[in-house]
Amino acid sequence: MLEPRGRLTLADVVIRYSPSGVIANWIAKRGRALWQTPECNLYGRETYVAKLKTAGFEDINVVSIAAHVFAPFKKFARRRVLDEEVRRRVHPLLRKIWASSHGGLDSLDYLVISATRK
């Protein structure tokens, strides 16, 4: 248990916006299954902060690091999919997804959050 005035710092992925359209929703659902993310854990920055406040935290600081994480990941995934080992071991459909633009990441934000327990 975190003592009063104790500091919590964590990194987490949240949604920026929900996908729209049948195909986008289907892809998002498959992505959640792949990452084993329950639908009840899908919410944005504002809800995250509200939940921290409800849990007794204050001095909440939220910083997005998405630009420093997702863009390099996209670049890595496009390169990695060309590797012979990946071509041998990974299903062609998954390789195609890796090589794509990873547009699904655009709907996500990667946050570093810190807060103090009251």
Structure overview:
- The chain has 5 helices and 3 strands, in the order E-H-H-E-H-H-H-E.
- It has 118 residues and is α+β, with helices and mostly antiparallel strands.
- It has a 3-stranded antiparallel sheet.
> Considering DSSP H and I runs of 4 or more, what fraction of the residues is helical?
40-55%
CATH fold-level label? Rossmann fold
Task: Calculate Rg over CA atoms.
Answer: 17 Å
Catalogue the unreliable spans.
none
CATH class: Alpha Beta
The major beta sheet can be summarized as: 3 strands, antiparallel
Helix segment tally: 5
Series of H and E elements = EHHEHHHE
Structural class by secondary-structure content: alpha+beta
How many β-strand runs? 3
Q: Which overall shape is indicated by the principal axes computed on the Cα atoms? A: elongated
SSE map:
Layout: E1 7-15, H1 22-34, H2 45-54, E2 57-64, H3 66-80, H4 84-89, H5 92-99, E3 108-117
Antiparallel strand pairs: 1-3, 2-3
Q: What are the salient characteristics of this protein?
A:
single chain; 118 residues; alpha+beta; Rossmann fold; 5 helices; 3 strands; 44% helix; 23% strand
Short description:
With 118 residues, the protein is an alpha+beta fold.
